[in-house]
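Give me the fold.
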Amino acid sequence: MQSLNATPDGVLLVDKAEGMTSHDVVALTRRKLGTRKIGHCGTLDPIATGLLLLTVGRGTKVQDLLMSEDKEYAGTFVLGVTTDTQDRQGEVVQQRPVPELDENQIRAAFEKFRGDFYQLPPMVSAKKHGGMPLYKLARQGKVVEREPRLVHVYRYGLDRIALPEIDFSVLCSKGFYVRTYVHDIGEVLGCGGHLKSLRRIKSGRFDVVNAITVDQIKNAPREEILSRMLSLPEVSRMRGA
């Protein structure tokens, strides 16, 4: 339990709402808690919902540790349409007919992206090139060389196949772009695809079921938000440190 007057320290699990940036959530929480020292672990795109870890006060010292942990997502993608952002917010680049695919063919495409493989970060991303986020360069119509990065998929699930839509889940390493994963699977299937929706369910041992919602942050008194914050000893215990 945090002291109400002391500068808060710890980690707050937030269930990010759709349409917000990760920075929007940080700005809202700064206002509600009256503290500037808040960071977040792992950017979620505006179309994505789910678990966003906010580090508060001295909690920012463990930010890199928390960012390095594996993430679990559930999402939906649409075959037959590729976009310049690899998600539904982008401009349509190409439309192709979706073949009659059965579950075995779809599973075979997913299998190509299991274990270790290299992934090319999308141009519309927060990754920096020469100190500038790639998405800002993309807005200027620029495309720059990106270094492929080694990523890992521990497991995936096919939860619903209703072509052209596929619901899936994936447990992956840090620095993984689910938009690119979906794009690449669509290319293997020969018709392309883009991400329609995404939800982060877990980050390391932290689960979205224990998170406070953005509406609760907006409407709850400061002391209630503080009561939901994990202390640094609690975070260490949960991480098995």
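The chain is about 25% helix and 35% strand.
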